[in-house]
Amino acid sequence: MKLFDLTGKVAVVTGGSKGIGRSICENLAEAGAKVVVSSRKLPACEEVVAGIKRAGGEAMAVPANISDKGSLEALIAATRKAWGKVDVLVCNAASNPYYGSMSGLGDEVFDKIMRNNVLSNLWLANLVLPEMVERKDGVIIIVSSIGGLRGTGVLGAYGISKAADMALVRNLATEWGPHNIRVNAIAPGLIKTDFAKALWTNPEHLSRAEGQSPLRRIGLPDDIGGIAVMLAGKAGAFVTGQVIVADGGATIV
Known about the structure:
Layout: E1 10-14, H1 19-30, E2 34-38, H2 42-54, E3 58-61, H3 69-83, E4 88-91, H4 107-135, E5 138-143, H5 156-176, E6 181-188, H6 197-200, H7 203-212, H8 222-232, E7 243-246
Helix pairs in contact: 1-8, 3-4, 4-5
């Protein structure tokens, strides 16, 4: 048994054009999966696809906007049209349009955060679950955050959405586990991505984050990509409903 072999599997990754999502796409492809790279901007997705193909993998680009249910339906339909199925769904795309006290958080902004970071994941899950039930096999991975485990004075709404993702994973895992469908979350700490650029480009914040981490560094996208491969394959066959924290130990100190 090859624990990390995904040959023959089809994976859809949202937010796959850069950062953590790009690493997940590249690592799933390296493990043998056919990967659908999705984000809002097609050229950025095509760049990732080109890199995967140069490395000998299989991938295609399908743009989608996670705030639009019809767009996500089209994403899954395009995947099925090209490759016939979805074995692995990775919900990585998210938004964080607000930084500051929740006392100044507008209702529309909060609604957007919850729609993009939680509801879109449920939409996607419900789109792929029926076929996974038929096969008695399937994997769903939601990229959450340690923001869902800790309090913060400036990223409160984002943290609430990521805590909700953890609850979503537990509930989906409970409901669909009898059909051999595994649902898990990955909760990264501070990762060197464009999404978190405001945090790691701040020398004071970076120094504090590194000093408080047992590993004395912040993460890189590939620190997360490999975890997705584990959860998607035989190595993760007995793991479901869990939140895999990858934060260099930041939450244990």
